[in-house]
Amino acid sequence: QNCKNTWLKLQSHDLSMSWLNGVKFCVFGLGDSTYCQFCVAAESFDVRLGELGAERMLKRGVGDDRDEDKYFTGWENWLPELWTALHV
What three-state secondary structure class fits 40? Predict the structure, then answer.
């Protein structure tokens, strides 16, 4: 329910394209690549946050449940980039 409410708020036509100026974000999506809507929620959030003026810290990451070790393949590849972007 929280995610749905957040998404509905982000879709509001009352929000200016600078509403999230100064906000930094990154997105990692989980899913199964055999589904036609594979990680569509992660993609939608990623695009919309950028449209509202937030600064993308790094490319969207994806974890695919169809990988040999499930989503860990994508996570393990994306995580070092996250740490670098966070300067830790």
Answer: helix
